[in-house]
Design brief:
Order of helices and strands: HHHHHHEHEHHEHHHEHEHEEEHEE
Structural class: alpha/beta
Strand content: 15-25%
InterPro entries: METTL2/6/8-like (IPR026113), SAM-dependent_MTases_sf (IPR029063)
Pfam family, one: Methyltransf_23
Keywords: Methyltransferase, Transferase
CATH topology: Rossmann fold
GO molecular function: RNA methyltransferase activity; S-adenosylmethionine-dependent methyltransferase activity
Helix content: 25-40%
CATH superfamily: Vaccinia Virus protein VP39
Protein name: tRNA N(3)-methylcytidine methyltransferase
Length: 328
């Protein structure tokens, strides 16, 4: 097995300060009290009704966001993930990973580089950003990377995952005869070469995946849709498979920058461009994943101080790191 762990991954650290200390500082600051107040239930009810009427509103906002940042310069390669989730480096031959909300490929590329045995199936709600991801991976002068990268269009929290990932009989674990699950819509979602490689693996589907990465994706999903979205991930993961989670944590610097009128729920905010962001506590993440049937393997806050060299300011960033397993 060929393994290459970049220097950036080796230097990564995640405990620059204690989350409890930051929490106390935020709660003692009168100017930040609007972040701590309960969200008005009537306003929240109106928001939920609006979302039911326009289920694709959130994905449309992200499509426009990716269109504005289609150059790919907005996202940096997430090489630290190889250290945070070493299973991605040590996994066996022909391992399958599903990257949910892949963006321009900033998560997929370091994983493909780090392990030549892993195949990455990457989805996003934006067709335009998927093209950028193909270009991003294709720009690397290694044919094996392109052969192991399978991007496809999917809005997992609205439509669910396509059946070629795990057909009904596989999801139910019933010993039924395999059948052809590919449909015309599936052909539109994945290019013909990828489809041919998939169909060689199995006559009905790829038989679920060994790993799933949810990296700064779940926070963009409306809170009430999160349980369904996580259950979708659970359904296409093999028994014993791992889901790797990383997202915005409670009291992260970006949360504290939102104005009171940008709140659309408790710990949930909407930017001026229509994209939303939720900020997770450890307990919220635990309840969501255990409620879907997962087993908790790792769960903690990552607290990192970064410096804006241009402004000379120190920024306190908070992310939630999680690792969850589907029971055997």
């Amino acid at each position: 097995m060929s393994v290459c762990v970049p220097a950036e991954a080796e230097e990564y650290h995640s405990k620059d300060f204690e989350w409890e200390t930051l929490k106390q500082k935020i709660e003692d600051d009168p100017s930040l009290q609007h972040h701590l107040l309960p969200f008005h239930s009537l306003q929240q009810h109106e928001e939920e009704e609006e979302e039911e009427e326009e289920p694709e509103k959130d994905s449309d906002a992200w499509k426009k966001f990716h269109s504005r940042h289609s150059s790919g310069k907005f996202f940096k390669e997430r090489r630290y993930l190889l250290k945070e989730f070493p299973e991605l480096v040590s996994c066996g031959e022909s391992s399958k990973l599903l990257e949910v909300g892949c963006g321009n490929g900033s998560t997929a590329l370091p994983i493909l580089r780090g392990n030549e045995n892993i195949n990455v199936y990457a989805c996003d709600c934006s067709s335009e950003i998927l093209e950028r991801a193909k270009e991003f991976v294709g720009a690397v002068d290694l044919a094996s990377l392109k052969e192991r990268f399978h991007p496809f269009h999917c809005d997992f929290c609205t439509t669910g995952f396509p059946e070629w990932l795990a057909c009904d009989s596989c999801q139910e674990s019933c010993p039924q005869k395999q059948h052809d699950c590919f449909s015309v819509s599936d052909v539109k979602e994945i290019d013909r070469l990828n489809l041919m490689s998939l169909s060689r693996e199995s006559s009905c589907c790829i038989g679920r995946v060994d790993f799933i990465t949810l990296i700064f994706t779940l926070s963009a999903v409306p809170l009430q849709k999160m349980p369904t979205a996580i259950k979708e991930c659970y359904s296409v993961l093999k028994p014993g498979g791992l889901l790797f989670f990383r997202d915005y944590g409670l009291y992260d610097m970006t949360m504290l920058r939102f104005n009171p009128e940008q709140r659309v729920g408790f710990r949930e905010y909407m930017r001026s461009d229509g994209t939303r962001s939720y900020f997770f506590s450890i307990d919220t993440v635990r309840n969501l994943f255990l409620g879907a049937g997962f087993i908790e393997v790792e769960l903690e806050y990552c607290c990192v101080k970064s410096v804006n060299r241009r402004k000379g300011k120190s920024m306190e960033r908070v992310w939630v790191h999680g690792k969850f397993q589907k029971p055997f």
